Amino acid sequence: MSRPEQLAPAEVFYNETESRKYTNNTRIQHIQAKMTLRALELLNLPKDTANFILDIGCGSGLSGEILTEEGDMWIGMDISPDMLATALDREVEGDLLLADIGNGIPFRAGTFDAVISISAIQWLCNADTSNADPKRRLLRFFNTLYASLKRGGKVAAQFYPMNDNQLDQIQSAAKVAGFQGGVVIDDPESKKNKKYYLVLSAGTPDVQINLEGVVMDAPTKERKLNKKQMKLMETRKDYIQRKKEVMKRRGKSVANDSKFTARKRRPRF
Amino acid sequence: MKFLTTNFVRCAIKSCDGAVNSFPLKYSEIELVQEEQDFQPEFILGILPRLDWPAILKVAADLGNTSLPSQLPEIDINDPSNEILLKDLHTLLIETQLVQGKMICENCNHVYHIKDSIPNFLLPPHLAN
Ligand SMILES: C[S@@+](CC[C@H](N)C(=O)[O-])C[C@H]1O[C@@H](n2cnc3c(N)ncnc32)[C@H](O)[C@@H]1O
Ligand SMILES: [Zn+2]
Question: One Gene Ontology cellular component annotation (chain A) (predicted)?
Fold first, then answer.
């Protein structure tokens, strides 16, 4: 089966018929929902507030609806008028912008708490028209995306790279724009379920101040860290182990710890 | 599109990136609707520090509303009377929707159109970045 990206430009491929077919397919609904939840897990946003989130390549709002359920406010961008029309028909809560992300993210600096994107950014690697330059479009995209995020804002983008070259192209453009992060691969052994998530942060969060070399007058007694600070300091392994504890307490079965627990599946860039 | 969004969208053309007058866009011939939405005080509280109040005033004036306070009032979350203020902001930012009209960049004069509540930021090939 060929990939949609190879058949036609997105705004042509996702025409009225295809948009409706895509959106009403229960298997697709299920997969997109699962990936959205996983992206949210990777973002690890504060639960006690309503976040302001950009959904890139929002399509008909399958991912956005989950953001609404989470109590977050979102804005979606998509290049396909028919996908957006389907989103309107389904009365999604988020605002919708008709836009080509390869031309940049038209928001002022520091707008969003976080960015999510499900199954969309691989389209940027395509040269659909004769004057399209994927490299330039990727850079424009990541540069303006970086600016649109508040400091320390995070991105989780599931995507389908066609090959290692695209994987590299996307990661290096993100890096050039100033992002930190890398790619997380879920189910790397499964040809069918293997999923790529680009996970980025735009600088360090304000809360993570650097206390190195600071001398304080107060007696050096062990400061008790609050929950939030503990979370900030934990490594990925600590995080996974904490989540596993929580799951166990809730009576869910979790994988036994092994030497592979929380090992990165791909080097960071 | 919600009034809130006007406080964040700017001209999409690269040569307008650093230009101060590429934000906010100028709104003209706008058709508005009021649409009831869930009241989420925690969202309003969270977004307040990020609002550009002068831009709110300018866009509100474009839409014919010149009765907003010239400065964003202080909000103390422990004071119950602030509930009213948050509700007012909710009505303005979330429930006021722009359904048709034009948005114009005051730096490059490019006109963007809003149709069926969706602003169109697609650029013609000669302006594509
Ligand atoms: C597989 S759909 C995913 C839609 C939605 N995120 C979901 O999970 O259901 C991919 C979407 O990316 C959009 N897309 C592709 N290229 C784009 C571009 N250059 N700018 C904006 N959106 C784009 C397509 O129009 C399509 O709606
Ligand atoms: Zn402009």
Answer: cytoplasm
* Tens-place pLDDT, residues B36-72: 999 999 999 999 999 999 999 999 999 999 999 999 8
Q: What ipTM did this prediction achieve?
A: 0.96
In whole angstroms, how far apart are CA A150 and each of A102, A112, A201, B28, B47?
21, 6, 10, 29, 12
Q: Which ligand is closest in space to the CA of residue A23?
A: 1
Q: Quick check: is A251 in a domain?
A: no
User: What is the tally of structural domains in chain A?
Assistant: 1
Q: Which residues of B touch A131 (CB under 8 A)?
A: 125, 128
Instruction: Return the residue of A nearest to B22 by Cα.
Output: A108
Cα separation, B125 vs A9, in Å, equals: 15
Is any ligand 1 atom within 6 A of the Cβ of residue A35? no
Neighbours of A49 (CB within 10 A): 16
What pTM was estimated for this model as a whole? 0.84
Does residue A233 sit within a domain?
A: no
Q: Is A80 in the pocket of ligand 1 (CB under 6 A)?
A: yes
